[in-house]
Amino acid sequence: MEAHRIEISRRRQRVLYLLLVAFSVRLAWALFDIQVLDHREWVEAAQGQQKKRVVIQPDRGRIFDRNGIPLAINREQYEIYLVPRRIEDPDRFVAEFTRIVPYDEEELRAKIARGGWYQRLLRGVERETVQRLAEADIEGVGVETYGVRDYPHGDMAAALLGRVDPDNIGIEGLELQYDDALRGRAGFAVHQRDALGREYPNFTYPLEPPVHGKDIYLTIDVGLQEIVEAALGDAVENSRAMSGSIVVVDPRTGEILALASRQGGEAPATTALNHAVVDQFEPGSTFKVVTLVGLYEENLAAPTDSVFCENGRWSNDGRILTDVHPYGWLSIEEVIEESSNICAAKLADRLGDERLYEYARRFGFGLPSGLDFPGEPRGLLRRPDQWSSMTSASVAMGYEVMVTSVQMAMGFAAIANGGELLRPYLVSKVQSMGGTTDFEGRPQRVRRVMSAENARLVTRALVRVVEQGTARSAQIDVLPVAGKTGTARKTSAGGYVRGRYTSSFAGFFPAMDPRYVVFVRIDEPVGAFYGGAVAAPVFRRAMESTLISETSGGDASLVGRMRSPDRVVWTVSDSVVDLPAWPREAADSTAGGWTPMIELPEDLYEEAVEPYVIDVRDERGPPEPAYDPRTHVKIPDLTGLSLREAIARASRLGIRLAFTGTGRLSGQTPEPGEVVPRGSTVAVSNP
Fold first, then answer.
1. Nearest one of 145, 144, 147, 143 to 184, comparing CA atoms
2. Which of 428, 17, 359 is nearest to 215 (CA)?
3. What is the pLDDT of residues 414-457, one digit of tens each?
4. Is residue 470 packed enough to be buried (19+ CB in 10 Å), middle (13-18) or exposed (0-12)?
5. Would you say 667 and 684 are in contact if contact means Cβ atoms under 8 Å apart?
6. How large is the angle between the packed helices 556-563 and 536-549, nearest 10 degrees?
């Protein structure tokens, strides 16, 4: 019996021993697995509980105008998140939290029930709310800061600047074009986490600071941008147009000084679509300068040559061409001045298909201008072997060719600067946060389009357009303007539609020492639709406002010279014969980049021009009594004007106003039309 008990005891000991051996082997294997085979995974799991990697977002680079005025900056925002594991009493938490932050209680309880260390709750929380949460010291809620994009000037230049997505990544406009430079690179820090989930900085852990984005300085002048947007917005609204765009460029460098788009109808004042860059359209008569340049360059015509314009109606290869007004014989300059389609077609035939195409290419049409902005199209200019028998006439009139507003502005800039096509650009420099300049924009020459002499002749014709032709509404009272109007029917379903037009004006100011080249386009105006009636006044208003505000491309002497009494222009004859000369040839710099040599035209006319007066309503009148405009001034009719408009007009004329109220003017002394010495005071009556 005793032996049996001993045997059972030994069996039990053996089983226990085997169990102990098996447990030891399993424990040893587990330790080997943890410390050797799966060591990395277990370390990562432990670190996941003990450490937290915190991403440090970089500051997005800012965008400034040419004078350092901020256009896009960063603003701090707040985000609320939950830490469900630290919420011991959900009912109490919900009651305390919703007393400060309005939030759906059922949804809040659902987020708490999910558990974990992080549940995003709200973004874009006001600072006052964050302060109240901090004062309440509610366990289980946290706050993080993040940067959002802010545009101090609201919607101004919105189509140019573009926008970013919720993660601060550029998705439109310049924010997209220069996103790599603006975005920067994120850094990180590793925090220590205790058993309760509380985080503490640990300076022994890795730390990589973020690389902040670079600042972008544009060529845009914010003052000029504001002026052109106001002028464009009023024009689109008053004409009930579908849209409008305006480009202002410095012809000496290719810098874009202002670039604006406006959507009409029920759309918001500005949209992300930048019509000035991406819209393609048939330019109409503004394209006639291409034929004129080709004729002058090929010595196929002189300004005084005559062309018969068929008295307003002409059959060309079975196609009937008409002019707005019937003309007989016109000189080459008068063809441009009166914008005769018939004579433009005849002159294009003289130039020939190949050469007409060549000069259109010289101006850059059918090719991207190279503007540093996303989505710029090429336009359309088909090769001559794809032309029909009527294409040459169509191209001469600005049809069967598609252009952009930027391309048109740069084409006229080539005329204004003496014949050089430049690449337009929007960024003057890219600068790191430390102040180091990483990129600097410079003028870039594309090609010579025409000689300086022929640029002078074309300028002469364009001044006639403004002084005596279709663009008289673009005249400015101080110095002559050169420009050309354009009106083109729009197409739909393969044909031209009656009543739908693109109205445009391209011009530069001052004509003899150009600082601004402006292209204005109004798309589908209702009612008046000619470029001279719809687009040219936008140019005039923008340039006059620029002078009044002394926004003059950084050259303060320009405003002073324009306001000087001996430069005031009173009659057409004065404006076309009393002009400064300019050098014959341009010179290219061979070092340090290319800087255009500004070539100023000689006197526009050798022959005398019969004077007539341009009054404030752009009408012709009888010759004025003789007086010296350098010492005397003719008092304009100020009645009906607002005080602001009257002050602006008086400032341009060199007279003073005496007034008492703020309403529209109802009377004045001296009477309109009287000639008084400069500096005289006009007493006006207003409510």
1. 147
2. 428
3. 999 999 999 999 999 999 877 888 889 999 999 999 999 999 99
4. buried
5. yes
6. 110
